[in-house]
Amino acid sequence: MFTSLDLANHFGFKVLNGDLQSLKRPITVAELDRPGVELLGQFQCHQKNRIMLIGHKETALIRERNEEEVYRNALSICSADCPCVIVTHGDECPAPILRAAKENNCPLFSSDADTSRLSSDMYVYLTEALAPSTAIHACLLEIFGLGVILLGESGIGKSEISLDLIKKGHRLIADDRVNIRAVRGKLIGSCPESIAGMMEVRGIGIIDVARMFGINALSKSAEISFLVDLVSFNKNEPMERVGMKTDRYEILNEYVPMVRLPVSAARSMSDIIEAAVTNFKLKDYGYDTGYEFQKRLSELQQKRELERRTAERNVLGNKSEKPKTVISMNPEPDSVSSVKVGLINPEAESRKMGTVELVDDSTKGGDRK
Asked: Which entry of 202, 241, 322, 352 is annotated as an active-site residue?
């Protein structure tokens, strides 16, 4: 349970009112409120279980209002359900607020921080402190900058595989037990304080990772991005062969991408896990090897189908064509079969062929010798 005293100790608030019992009031929500309209007597939308901040605006409003009226409204603000009231900017607490807090024994704190900055810092801190949490039996490592959970039944070799990955330069976060919190849509994994930096290796016992491999082999926490489920190898059990399918593992209503890897003595599991994490990062950056493989097969099939159809069209086209008779419009001169017909000038043509014309000399009046 997270209390107002825990909040005050973390941010260094000055206690203006409240005994030890009241300082143990639980804080159940991360949202905060500034009770401007409540000081005016409007409580229709009032959230009783929120932390109340009194800044410059609220202080100026109190000064302009009747003190008794503000006091009556402050009694409802400083109710038994209110975790605490905080006066910011190091301002002096308004008298009606202090009077109402003392009457209801409500925790009242003072802070030198700016109202907006304090509100933001407190919200981030409370979302982590109040985040839903769980614990699982697994190993958590930081591999290539990603938080990776190694999941599997007891005795399958999670710690031994983790040890091999640490020797390759990756970082251990938790062995055997992983604490997980859902913080603003992200899963944050960490190690219980009692076993931080320790590993159990069957046959050896507990080892100190920091002393054996250096302090850089450890990390306190990491965002869980990927999960590897280690299963015993079974040749009769179908396994993913292409990589198109993406499984998901649910943790605190969040779904983590998961790959299932069979474990056998002949396989180097640390190398395979590194390959699986690298392939996941490629998918995260937009390159899916399984999709590219399917695309390549599809393109090859389309190419072969196009070639088959083209070949079929060529064969069918050659069968449908008939032989063609070619008639020459300009026969060769020495062709035996060529015949000259339709002479326009037969006399000229006869001269060309050697025709002799006879002439009668008597008509010319001369004697012929």
From this structure: 241
